Amino acid sequence: MAHDASFNPFQMARAQFDKSADLIGLDQGTRDLLRSPLREFHFSIPVRMDDGTVKVFEGFRVQHSDARGPAKGGIRFHPQETVDTVRALAMWMTWKCAVADIPLGGGKGGVICDPHNLSAREQEAICRGWIRQMNKNVGPVEDVPAPDVMTNPQHMLWMLDEFETIRGGRYPGMITGKPVGMGGSLGRTEATGYGAVYCLREALKELGIDVKSTTASVQGFGNVSQYAIELYHRMGGKVICVSSWNQAEQKSVSYYKPDGVDLAQLQAITDRFGGIDPAKARELGYEILPGEAWLDREVDILIPAAIENQITGANVEKINKRVKVVVEGANGPTTPEADAVLFKRGIFNIPDFLANAGGVTCSYFEQVQCNMNYFWERDDVLNKLDAKMTAAYHSVSDLARNKKLYMRDAAYVVAVNRVAAACRDRGWV
Ligand code: GLU
C-alpha cells in the first residue's frame, strides 16, 4: 500500500458525488452545499518527546455534514496524511451513515504522525493535544470521533479522559470505539470486518454462488481484514492470499498459500499495525510475493481492506479473469478509472461506504448503550448489526437491479437522496 503523492482523494470523492448528483438531478444549491465540508479545523499539537525536545504535529478535523445528526467518523494517524484525504474521508462518512440509515452525519480527523516511531506516552500526548484543540467543537451531540487507520481503543479512552477533564463531567457518548468496560460496545472490534462479510454473504446469495465453493484474496491485515477473514472462513470460504505492509522495507508484501491461509498462525506473527513477519511466514510455508500479487490471484473474491487508492488505472487489468466480486473493506480503495474497468468486466462491486459501514453502525449502537447506561450482550449487538447491514445492502442492490445501476452509483443515489432530503426538510436548501 505504497503512498502516491499525486493522488488526490478529495478530487475522487467529488467526482463520485458529481456523477451521482447528475444521476438524481440534484438542484444546484444542494450540490454546492454537499460538495464541500460544512466546517474544518486545522491546528498544531505541541508534544514533549521522550528525548526532551518538543515536536509539533499537524492535526485536522473536517465536519462534512451534520444534516442527519452529529458529525461522525474516525481519526487517522498517518505519516502521509493530507487535509484533502481527511476531506474525502469525511464526505464518505456522510454517505456511509446515510446508507446505513443511522442518525449521524459525516466527519473525519487526522494527525500527521507515524505511531510506529512513537512511544505510548508520546501517542497519549498527541491524543490529549488533539482534544485540547478540538474540545469546543466535538461532543456527543456535535461531532463524535472513533478509531481509524493506526488508532485504537486506548487512543479513544485518552481522548475521552482529556475531554471529560476539561468539561468536568462524564460524556461517554463523545467518542466511540472505546475499550469494553470503559463505555465500549462488545462486537465493535469485529464490526467492520463482519459487516463487510454480511454484505458479501447477501451478494453471493443474489449471484447464486455457494460461499463454500469460493476463494478470496485480501489486501491488508489490520483490524478490518482479520475479522473479515475470520467470518468468511467460518462461512466456509477460503482465503489464499493476504498482502500486508512491511515497515522495515517500506513496501507491501503478499503472502500466498494455495491451500488456504491459517488466520491464527498469521496473527501470531503480526505486529499491532497488521504487519506480517516475512521470515517467519516463509518458515510456515507461505510463498512471499510482491505487494500487488494479491490482485492477480486466481480467486472469486477480492477484499481490499487497507487504504485508499489501491486498485487503480495502472493495475486494474491485473485482476484475474475468475474474479466475480470485489468487497471494499477500506475507504476509497478503487479509483474512478479502475471502477470503469470493473463495471465493464461485469465484476460485482460492494462499494466502500456500504461494505465497511459495520464499524460506524456499531459505533452508533455504542452511543445508544452509553446513553442508556445499559450494555448489551455480544450476540445482541452482532444480530442487530447483521440486520442493519443486510437491510442497507438490499436497499442498494434492489435499486441497482431495478434501475440497472452499478452498485456504487446505486449506493450514492440512496445516500445522497437521504442527505439532500434532510437538508431540504431543515430548510437549508
Ligand atoms: N473509522 C471507521 C470508518 O471509516 C469508523 C467510524 C466510526 O465508527 O465513527 O467507518
Structure in words:
- The chain contains 14 helices and 12 strands.
- It has 429 residues and is of the alpha/beta class.
- It folds into 2 domains: 146 residues, Leucine Dehydrogenase, chain A, domain 1 (Rossmann fold); 167 residues, 3-Layer(aba) Sandwich (Rossmann fold), CATH 3.40.50.720.
- The strands form 2 sheets. A 7-stranded mixed beta sheet has the order 9-8-7-6-10-11-12. Strands 1-2-4-3-5 form a 5-stranded mixed beta sheet.
- Strand 3, helix 3 and strand 4 form a beta-alpha-beta unit.
- Helix 4 crosses helix 5.
- The longest helix has 26 residues.
- The radius of gyration is 20 Å and the shape is globular.
- The two termini are 40 Å apart.
- The structure holds glutamic acid.
Shape: globular
The second-level CATH architecture of the largest domain is 3-Layer(aba) Sandwich
- Strand percentage: 15-25%
Q: Which ligands does the model contain, each kind named once? A: glutamic acid
CATH topology of the largest domain: Rossmann fold
Q: Find the CATH superfamily of the largest domain.
A: NAD(P)-binding Rossmann-like Domain
N-end to C-end Cα span: 40 Å
Return the CATH class of the largest domain: Alpha Beta
- The total number of structural domains is 2
Number of helices: 14
Q: Structural class from helices and strands?
A: alpha/beta
Order of helices and strands: HHEEEHEHEHHEHEEHHEEEHEHHHH
Q: Let me know the largest β-sheet.
A: 7 strands, mixed
Tell me, rounded to a whole number, the average pLDDT.
97
Helix content: 40-55%
Strands, count: 12
Order of neighbouring strands in the sheet with most strands: 9-8-7-6-10-11-12
Low-confidence stretches: none
Tell me the Rg in angstroms. Answer: 20 Å
